[in-house]
Structures are given as structure tokens and as C-alpha cells.
Amino acid sequence: MVLDNLSESLKSIMRKISGSSFIDKDTIKEVTKEIQRALLKADVNVKLVLKLTNTVQERALNEKPPAGMTAQDYIIRVIYEELLKILGTDSNFDLKPQTIMLVGLYGNGKTTTAGKLARLFMKKGLSTGLIAADVHRPGAFEQLQQISGDVNCGFYGEKGEKNALKIVRNGIKELADFKIKIIDTSGRDSLDQELIDEVHEIKEKINPDTVLFVIDATLGQQAGPQAKTLHDAVNIDGVIITKMDGTGKAGGALSAVADIQSPVYFIGTGEHMDDIQIFNPKKFLSRLLGMGDIDALMEVVKETNITEEEAEASLDKLMSGKFDLKDMYDVWEKFAKPGLLKKFFGALPLGKMPGGNKLDESQLDQADEKLRLYRVILDSMTFYELENPDVLNAKRIKRIAAGSGQGEKNVRQLLKEYNAMKKNMKSIKKNRNFKKMLKTQLKGGNFSLDDLESKML
Ligand SMILES: Nc1nc2c(ncn2[C@@H]2O[C@H](COP(=O)(O)OP(=O)(O)OP(=O)(O)O)[C@@H](O)[C@H]2O)c(=O)[nH]1
């Protein structure tokens, strides 16, 4: 597949980001440099690369991750969003009866694509006829005729006729019963004025419903000026990128498409008539980046939407001396979102606190599971016990263990953690910097332990 090399580079950059323990300015700069190199190697236009990487860098440096999202995930999201802008947003091709005009340069795959489209539309129940309006290339008439026979669709052409407009006019009349008519126009080695005039005239006089630009994925930097000139002449409604099955770079074609801001509707993935796919930018990009389901990542943010006020109130509770088990339960309830608890506890430098009880890595790994278990234990306590944890003697612990089915060991462990948390929170409540950073953490931000510790000393 085209862009394989770019995909490998981007995947390795993504791995690097998600594997880094913290994100600082240097990491962001390094990452954007690497993206820059990878895109340039894939033939993406320099101007576009610079614009993209500058935006990524600026956003990564200045924007705060939303609640529930780590800085790492957020940068991945920023990169994803900015790359998606190049590929365009999802826009489905409207499968309605229409006249389509195909434009593009010689050998880019126009004629083949006309046949592929005919087969695709007919599969969707839309009868299709092809009009052979390439009056310049010897053999173009026969090629389209042959293809229409292969896919069993309608065909109109006038062998030897040099007036493309006349053929199209007659063709539209002759193929009136077909729901979709596809005009295969001439291509050239380069964009000469004669070609531009010809396609411009057909566009003006025939007024097709849709003009589709067929472009070879491996075209390189000349794709840009070609797309622009054709767009100026016929106003391109959408793009079909062919030869996506090749090993080329595709960055040039993609840059050209980004430049004219037309949606890519289809991609060609081989020489056979079935080798055409509806283009889905999000899926394509997710595959390119080696991400499973990037939309799922976005969902985490929605699920963990904690407001600043909520974070502040919970933090005040945490740091007040009056922190009881009910408060602990409430805080956990609020922040027990996927991964958030782990992040929260993971960032607490408890080992550095007087009387600190640092949670080890394996404990952190099991944070979500532990929370579920602790909730069951807390549910087995009376209201009085939750508000007055000091009354929890051996007898009560035994009762709670039996009631929750979690064993005395787990009940004692929960109490141990509660006591450590309460003690630590009390001892740091006057530290404004720490409080501020914790708030960021509660809201899903991320920072390094080193950073946190240096702020505390
Ligand atoms: N691998 C691959 N080859 C393709 C694809 N689309 C077209 N081709 C091949 O590209 C070559 C040129 O395709 P044509 O359809 O003849 O090109 P054209 O743009 O119609 O050329 P003109 O009519 O001369 O303007 C043919 O050999 C096609 O089989 C594709 O998606 N993948």
C-alpha cells in the first residue's frame, strides 16, 4: 500500500509519545520534528508540512488536555486532528441519479475508474452508461467500449469524431434512460491550454452534476499545480485517488487534494474493476497511525467530564482535616473513570511525604479493580462508620469483611490507605503549588513526578 513508510514512521512516533513518562517542551519539539521529516519523506508539500507541524506544536504547547485525558493521549489526538484536516472530513458520495464528468491527466486511471464506478453504481441498483469523450488518445474509444462490455453497462461513443462536446451532447441524449452517466474526458501528458479549454467548454455547456478529479496517488509534487489549474477551470467537486495499492509516496497527491479542499470520495486499489473503495478519512488515518479506534479515545474525554468546580470541591475535601470514608467514597465515585484513578494516585508523591505510604506500581495497575472492590467494602459499612472511621474496631472489620465477602485483609488494606491518604493530604494542604498541580491532575492533565517533586521542595 502507498504510504507504508510514512505509516511506519508515524506509528513509531505514536509509540514514542504514548511510551514517554512525561511530556515537556523538548518532547513536543522533538516529536514535531520527527513528524516533519516523515511527511516530507512521503512527498507531502513543504508548505503544508510546516503549517501542520507548527499547529501541532502550538496546540500541544498551549492547550490543556481535557478532563480524563493524559498529555500523551492529547498530543496523539492533536496530531490525529491536524492530519485529518489534510485528508478531509467524512463526506459520503451522494448516490443519486446524475451526470458525472471525470477529469484528470493522461494515464492517471480515468478510463479504468469510469468502469469501476459503473460497476459500483450498478451494484447499488443505479443503471450506468459511459460516454467516450476522450477524442485525443488513440485507443481510448476502444478501451472504454471494452470496459463497458466487461462491466455490462451502457456505452456511447463516436469513433473518429474529434468534437468532444458534440459526443457528450449526443451521448446524454442516447443514454437518457440510464440513471448515471459518466463522461470520460481527454487527458494529456501535461496541462495544456487546449485540454483546459476542452474540459471547460464541456463543463459550461453540459453542466454536469458532479465533476470528479482522477489523480494518481504516486504523482509527486506536480500534482499540486495540476489540481489547481483543473479546479480553476471546472470547479472540482470531489476526488478519486487511484493506484493506492502501489508502493509510492502519495504525499504529493494528498497535498494537492488538501490544497483544492475537495473531498476524496473513492480510492483505486488495483487494476480490476472491483478495485475501488469508498474513502473514509478517519479509518484511513487510524490505520496509517496504527491506532485501533481513535474515536474511542475521544470518548474517554466525554465520559470523564469533570468540571473545574467539581475538581476544586473534591480537592478541598481531600485536603481538609475532616476527610472521612464517605468523602473518600464520593471522591472515588467521581474520579473512578477509566484510567483516571490510576493517573490520580500515580501522580501522588506519597513516598516523599512525612509518613508517606507510596503505592507501588502493581497497586497502581490494579487501581480500577481495587476501586470496585473497595466500593463493595464501603457499601457494607454503616453510615455512622463511614463518617466516623475511628470506630472501626476488629469486631466491626470482621462484620464488614463477611458482609462484603472481601475478607478482613482487604478491609484493613482499605483502612490503611484511607489513613495514609488522610495524613498526607493534611500535611500538604498548605502547599499551594501542589494543590494547583493536583487540580490539573484531577481534571485529567498530566505531569511528571519529578516536576511535581521539584515544585514541592
Ligand atoms: N495498480 C493500479 N493500477 C491502476 C489503477 N487505476 C488505473 N490503473 C492502471 O493505470 C493505467 C492507466 O489507466 P487508464 O484508465 O488507461 O488511464 P487514463 O487516465 O484513462 O488515461 P487517458 O485516458 O489516456 O487519459 C492502466 O494500466 C490501469 O490499469 C489502480 O487503482 N491501481
Provide a descriptive summary of the structure in words.
The protein has 457 residues and is of the alpha/beta class. The protein has three domains: 4-89 and 294-301, Up-down Bundle (Four Helix Bundle (Hemerythrin (Met), subunit A)), CATH 1.20.120.140; 98-279, P-loop containing nucleotide triphosphate hydrolases (Rossmann fold, 3-Layer(aba) Sandwich); 307-456, Orthogonal Bundle (434 Repressor (Amino-terminal Domain)). Helices cover 58% and strands 9% of the residues. The chain contains 22 helices and eight strands. The chain has helices spanning 4-19, 25-41, 46-62, 71-87, 110-123, 140-151, 164-174, 193-206, 223-234, 251-260, 281-289, 294-303, 308-319, 325-335, 340-347, 361-365, 367-379, 383-387, 394-404, 407-428, 432-442, 449-456; strands at 98-103, 128-133, 154-156, 180-185, 210-216, 238-242, 264-268, 276-278. It has an eight-stranded mixed sheet with strand order 3-2-4-1-5-6-7-8, sandwiched between helices. Helix 3 packs antiparallel against helix 4 (71-87) and helix 13 crosses helix 21 (432-442). The longest helix has 22 residues, at 407-428. Guanosine-5'-triphosphate binds at residues 104, 106-112, 134, 137, 140, 187, 242-243, 245-246, 268-271, 275. It is found in: Cytoplasm. Residues 263-276 form the SRP54-type proteins GTP-binding domain. It catalyses: GTP + H2O = GDP + phosphate + H(+). GTP binds at residues 104-111, 184-188, 242-245. This is Signal recognition particle 54 kDa protein.
